[in-house]
Amino acid sequence: MWSYVARRVLATLPVMGVVAVIVFLMLRLSPGDPAAIIAGDHATSEDIAQIRERLGLDRSLAEQFVWWLGQLLSGDLGTSIYLDRPVLGLILERVEPTLALSISTMTFAVALAIPMGVVAAWKAGSWIDQSIMALSVLAFSVPVFLIGYGLVIGFSLTLELLPVQGFVSLAEDPVGFARHLVLPTVALGLVYTALLARITRATMLETLNEDYIRTARAKGLAEPRVLILHALKNASVPIVTTIGTGLALLIGGVVVTESVFAVPGIGRLTIDAVLQRDYPVIQGVILVIAGVYVLVNLAIDLAYSLLDPRIRY
Amino acid sequence: MKRLLWAAVLALGLGGPGAAMAQDRASTLRVVVHANLQILDPVWTTAFITGRHAYLIYDTLYAMNSRFEPRPQMAEGHEVLEDGLVYRIRLRPGLRFHDGGAVRAQDAVASLRRWMARDAMGQQMAAVTASIDVVDDRTFDIRLKERWGMVLDTLAKPSNPAYIMPERIAQTPPNTQVTETIGSGPFIFVREEWRPGNRVVYRRNPDYVPRQEPADYLSGGKRALVERVEWLYIPDQNTALAALTSGEVDYFEAPPLDFIATLQRNRNIRIVDIDTLGTQGLIRPNHLYPPFNDPRARQALAHLVRQEDFMRVVVGNPQLYRPFCGAFFMCGSANGTEVGSEPFRQPNVERARQLLREAGYNGEPIVVLQPTDRPQYNAATMVLVQSLRRAGVNVDVQAMDWSTLLSRRASRNNPYEGGYHLFITTHGGPTTATPPANTWFNSRCERANPGWACDEELSAMVAEWARESDLEKRRPILERIHRRAWESLPYIPYGQYTQPIAIRSNIHGVLPAGLPVYWNIEKR
Fold it and tell me: What ipTM score was computed for the predicted complex, to two decimals?
């Protein structure tokens, strides 16, 4: 298995290389100039030209790329044009909110969706199944930002139970941390709940029609035991794959959720950097996200062997 | 239902803020700011957010009062010597920087030199300055090459004034960002709590020595009455509105104008106008290329603009705008003359068509830059496009985000090769109200802002106005400037309006200082 892991990790290098080139070219070839933004609204063209020169933006594309690549190979993601601070430090500062939101969202979604999917499959065709599927279609169809605003109006403005926006570090104030996570988690989690519930139902339906399930029932096993130990375990590979894919999709959702709830995470960092053309930050964040995506996929592949003994690496 | 939900929340251990936190909130002013503070050096950028940050932590030698007169701030006073050629400025005693060091004349001189190398008005002052010399630890001289009546106005200008830093920091080259944020202002920047893109924290400077006079506009005693000021950057305006409504924040610096009516209905919120002069919208033609390199085409453009149309779309609420303002230097200011604007009070499409023909316009596409991510500019651009089309102008609207527009408008290329003909922006306040300080009015050709307005006669008149220190004698010069400006049209004003702030009703002492400042404010 370790040689498989090593091969997969090595295979990520060309992927990351291609991502680096594409990101660099897309940014430099798209319109917009950080120097003009830095200089401010009253700046003259000379001011802007001076800043471009100082930031090295007046150099040729090839020169800029070689310089950036050199930095990257020495483990340096660069320095933010605006903040004059290392990109890696900025990303690390923003990891906690994004990680907390991602974990809480996936936990919420898994905790809600799998029982819903199992029950829907078990009671296939009943009003319970139809209600769960209707709710999942609804949750999947409503945009995250709309759910977010709805939750703010309901739980923050009307009931005055939870804060509208912001993030508090776990180390600073655990209660505040939890309070600030509830609404973003629910807003973002409902979409994944819907997705996972549908996948769980579909795979469970298939598994529940297998001969060994019929045998288990004929042996007189209790229904919960049949459902959880026999059916769910065997249906788990597609569910785990969906959870993994969901983690990747989450990156897009986190951007919107972090904006709506003013959570200072990686998503907000990316948006701010894109709007201001902070090239080193955008490049750094995208490379890190690409790396995380590759590693998550690797972790999912490895998890298959734990869930299904027939899969060996 | 509410009780049930509360029980659920408490059961989960998610109770509300404790007593200590409530106490902390009572002494903390939480503000939603209009932009993300990223650059801390006010000499390095002209970004508004950096200027507002600078006002909290730095102090200035002079500051404007509500009559737009320069008043001593860090300065104790000054003498004008040698027939107006030397300004001897003496600092107040007891001023200290946040690192404990005394404020000395050497600090002021180094700060002035760095600022004069970068700031547009500072550069004008540098052009007439022979030297700046330290006399003693509290006194320095500004020695001029010729008489110039704008010395104190320039030092006191509200936008991008000379903020005083310790000498060792002010010796940083002007094109390099300073890395330390040490001023002598009423608040101290708390770097450890700065989270770019989220939160900026300032704490009260216990050693600050306010002036004894009451606070007046940007002058007078700057008394910090809250222990902390927290700036929150909430880019989603609906979320910011909800945070103000729920009481999570106290002060919303720039609520969208279409939120005002909603906010006015909430008795826990007050709408306050802190900027008596307001904001001026402007259409900037590119003076480098036809047809707008011909003043007749710019006059045609002015004939197509009905300010009230722009204001209705951009602002909406008639209480917040003037139906027409023909002053380049802001209606309501001391320089707010409207002479020369008479022919343009009502649109005249026929006259516009005739002038365009005379300027040689033959239906070529007019490239208009449209910033779709700036709602106010976007709306104004759409009105402009409609006004142009009404006169049969062939308009090529190019949609882009604001960042792209900023770099595009700095391009001197042909409009069909990456350049442009027209774009929209705004400016405002007392800086706009002074001929030499109004950056978009500056018609010094190559040295003008993007659009490169070019009128040497107009520039000469502005220089003449700046040389004159007698207010009575300035008036006729101002009127000549204004008449000429409505012929030359460095830009076309499309209206003057107010951007109020929104605060919780327990916030008192907000100063009408032209921009958000956080001294004098109490939470009760």
Answer: 0.81
